[in-house]
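If I may wish for something, please walk me through the protein I am sending here so I can picture the backbone:
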Amino acid sequence: MVVFNTTTLFTLKNYFLIPFKLIMLLSIVSLTACSSLNAPKLSKGIQQAYSVSPTTADRLSPIILQSAKQHDVPPLLVAAVIRQESSYRSNARSPTGALGLMQIIPSHWRQDCPGDLYNEYININCGTHVLATYYKSAGSWHKALGYYYVGPTGYQRSFSNRYKARKYARSVERHKKELKSTL
């Protein structure tokens, strides 16, 4: 028979609470680290990771952070998509007609994203909205990136499209990791 006195119980209680306290502390520290991302820090990371000019990075970083917060999308993911889609060239236009930094196809997103898609604010806000929309339907950022590349219908339609979409998602995730390593 085991006999516990009040001192033993207090000690056991503390013993079992230590892992809980550590988990809570680490969670708070990691949340603080994520929320400490500000425009100058992101700008510096974009410059280092993607060789973007200081002027461009300084101009776009606040827009990325604001749009990411508004649509609840990780800001590093938005920055990585811009790197993948346009290499931070605001005037980019694809052969399929996708426009701007995040390569938005106007015919697909006209209702959700009115305005000039070459405008950096409109383009980043629209692209972030698209990512958030796809995340809600896909359930994961990896799959949402695939949808961003080939569309949800294209993703479901063929193995070839899913393969391309997964390859695209891996590429964006590499860009995100590269950016994160500079912060």
Q: What stands out?
A: The chain has a mean pLDDT of 86. The first helix runs from residue 6 to 35. DSSP finds eight helices and no strands in the chain.
